[in-house]
Amino acid sequence: MWVKKQVKQSIASHLSVLTFMRIALSALLLLCLVPEESSAQMFTRRFSGDKQKRLPKYDRQRLHFGFSLGMNSTTFRVRNVENINQYDSVFVIDPKPQMGFNLGIITDLRIGQHFNLRFIPDLSFADRKLQYTLRTFDTLGVPVLRTEEQKLESVLLEFPLTLKFKSVRINDGNWRVYILGGGKFMMDLASQSKIKTGDNEVVVKLNRIDYAYEVGLGFDIYMQYFKFSPELKVSFGLNNLLVKDETVYTQSINKLNSTTFLLSFHFE
Question: What predicted TM-score, i.e. pTM, was given to this entire model?
Answer without folding.
Answer: 0.76
